[in-house]
Specification:
By secondary structure, the chain is mostly helical. It contains nine helices and three strands, in the order H-H-H-H-H-H-E-E-E-H-H-H.
Length: about 220
Amino acid sequence: MIYEQSIREVVIKMPFELLKLPYSFDALEPVIDAKTMEIHHDKHHAAYIAKLNDAIAKHPELVNKSVEELLKDINSIPEDVRTAVKNHGGGHANHSLFWEIMTPKSGKPSETFVSEINKVFGSVDKMKDLIVANGMGQFGSGWSWLVVSGGKLKVYATANQDSPLMSGDIPILGIDVWEHAYYLKYQNKRDEYLKNWWSVVNWETVERNWENVQN
């Protein structure tokens, strides 16, 4: 009984946990297949969380910090777990955003958001093309981002699970270009995956992310 109680307490005290997707595994088909979504969420994201929790457990002073707080102040993280927090904390934060900015019922950005995009990139299509180009240009694993940097929209790519939060930027949209995000369906056709992905973007959430930075 005591042993079982201690196990329950350990589970409860884990600072980070895997949340359910806001839609079913097959909801984004045919753009992203159900098996990819299941493996990506239940295996890859879960592994990042487990390893982040393992790292945090070594330093109790970090337990009550959000993943965003950890990443924004990455240089102050104890050196023995800094790389783990960077990699697995980044993986957790990046994927948490990724699931939220996709939807089976994609719409369009509002006129207000489009106006802001046009100021910076010329048009929504030009912004998309730049994000796709950054994703294609990322050698190996990484992400292509739309972020708010210094109050302005900006696009760039990062390697591995590096988060824009570590540079002081706020990610509002990100495309995962790790092979596990697309390889079962698209194999080596990353360009096809990146172009098709726009049809499942949850523009309402992306715009809300942008608005939250402004407030």
